[in-house]
Amino acid sequence: MNREALEQLYTAYGFAVHRRCSRLLGSDAEADDALQEVFLRVERFGTHSVAEPLPWLYTLANHHCFDVLAKRKRIDGSVDAVAMRAAEGSEGPSLERTQLVAMVLANCSVRARDAATLYYVDEMTQDEVANRLGVSRKTVKEKLAQFKTVAARILGLVNGEEAAR
Amino acid sequence: MKTIDSLEPHAAAPHLAAWALEQAAFAPDAAPSLHLQTCQACQGQVAELQRQRAAFLTARPARPFIVHVQERASHRPFPWFRFLLPAATAFALVTVLLVFVGGQLPDDVSLKGAAPQLRILVSRQGAEATEWAPTVPLREGDLLKFAVTLPSDGFLFVANLDSQGHVSRYFPTEGRASQALRRGEHLLPGSVALDAVQGDELIIAVVSNAALTEAQVSSAASKAFAQSGQRLEAIEALELPGATAIKLHHKTP
Q1: Is B122 in the same domain as B202?
Q2: CB contact, 8 Å: A95 with chain B?
Q3: B133 touches chain A (CB under 8 A)
Q4: Is residue B203 part of a domain?
Q5: What is the pLDDT of residues A78-96, one digit of tens each?
Q6: Is residue A142 a contact partner of residue A116, using CB atoms and an 8 Å limit?
């Protein structure tokens, strides 16, 4: 892509992409890196004249953030260990919440993460999520149920640790 | 955004959903919905998003960001080139060796010997990264990013020297030789999470007109550490063929 086109895209949507990455990763510093990665992909592969750049950029951002979260999961250790650390509250409320969100997303399937992000972050209806992902509403419900199961398990671990203290 | 704690679906809200508000705020050609035309609350949210975007662009202007992205893109292979990785690696090694043995950058590149400028950006507990002031102690868990301004084209290596004399490579994040960069300011990719080791540390940026290996920089840093009587604050430069910028910081629990 030429520089002018990239600058226009960044001016219009750079903030939105950064905001999305910051929400998923829980860190402005990591969102800075994620923003660069998203625009690197845009620079390399072009927009292919997508009709709606914002949802497309969000998809790139989501997938990059999910990769970061998956790596963080491998580094941070098991769900139980992270839940225990979060319950101990030694890392501050902001990081604690970030760790929880990250662990939930990192432990879901790709489809469940996509559905949960569209549903909870973008606040789409189940029909809108189904339309965006090209699946049935029944599938969306199943994926959201999977997400809830993982989230409930991790929240349960945290609450269990807190209750035990 | 919905809270993960509640796990409740969003209510059939009378106002626009997050994606619709963002589309209205950011998409240049978005036609306002009927609801948005008549709802002051949603209009206010759209205006606030646009205000935040303007502030973001002031802090992170488009031109230098895109220039940096294109610089990075020019240094990274396409995924479909992966099968050429062995050949590309060999080519890169030969190139580095030739440049190193030759001792000079290509003809269109020069280094005038002026010192680079090193800025450290710190993010604490997920907050937005801000420029670090030398009087502020750093802590375990702080995320550091580095911005280096090169007075002319050259090769950059950034290292850390701790109070025990240990040397760590910060930049380049991959490879063991300094990396060629054009003149101007570069926000270096990646970030460094500080560990639990306490005490003074030096962050050293070396710009040279030939590639330096990690072993060369590490050796020069260790020598300077020994010659200074293991006093980091007494180190002003490294004995290397290049210009150096050094920042001393103190890390507390």
Answers
A1: yes
A2: yes
A3: no
A4: yes
A5: 555 555 555 554 444 444 5
A6: no
**Would you say residue B34 lies in a domain?**
yes
How many CA within 13 A on the CB side of residue A72? 24
A102 class by beta-carbon count within 10 Å (0-12 exposed, 13-18 middle, 19+ buried)? buried
From the list A10, A44, A118, which residue is nearest B66 (CB)? Answer: A10
Residue range A77-165 in CATH 1.10.10.10: yes
Rounded to whole angstroms, the Cα distance separating B249 from B245 reads 13
In whole angstroms, give the CA distance from residue B221 to residue B240. 9
- For chains A and B, count residue pairs whose Cβ atoms are closer than 8 Å: 129
**B194 and chain A in contact, CB less than 8 A:** no
Are A122 and B129 an interchain contact pair (Cβ–Cβ within 8 Å)?
no
Q: What is the ipTM of this complex?
A: 0.77
Question: Does residue B55 form part of some domain?
Answer: yes
B217 and B151 housed in the same domain: yes
CA–CA dist A64, B196 (Å, integer): 29
B52 touches chain A (CB under 8 A): yes
DSSP notation for B126-165: TPPPEEPPTTSPEETT-EEEEEEEESSSEEEEEEEEETT-
Q: B122-174 pLDDT, tens per residue?
A: 888 777 778 887 777 888 778 888 889 888 888 899 998 988 788 888 888 77
Instruction: Closest CB to A43: pick one of B10, B17, B73.
Output: B73
A23/B1 Cβ within 8 A: yes
CB contact under 8 A, B65 and A12: no
Q: How many helices (H) and strands (E) does chain A have?
A: 8, 0
Give the structural domain span for B45: 18-59
Contacts of A104 in chain B (CB under 8 A): 4
Closest CA to B210 of B98, B100, B93, B92: B100
User: Where does CATH 1.10.10.10 sit in chain A?
Assistant: 77-165
Do A120 and B4 count as a contact with CB atoms less than 8 A apart? yes
Residue found under tokens 């914002």: A54
Mark whether B137 and B240 lie in a shared domain: yes
- Look at residue B84 and tell me if it is in a domain: no
- Cα→Cα distances A58→A42, B110, B116, B162, Å: 12, 41, 37, 41
State if pTM tops 0.80: no
Supply the pLDDT for residue A34: 93
Of B10, B22, B126, the CB nearest to A54: B22
B174 vs B177: CA distance, rounded Å: 9
Domain count, chain B: 2
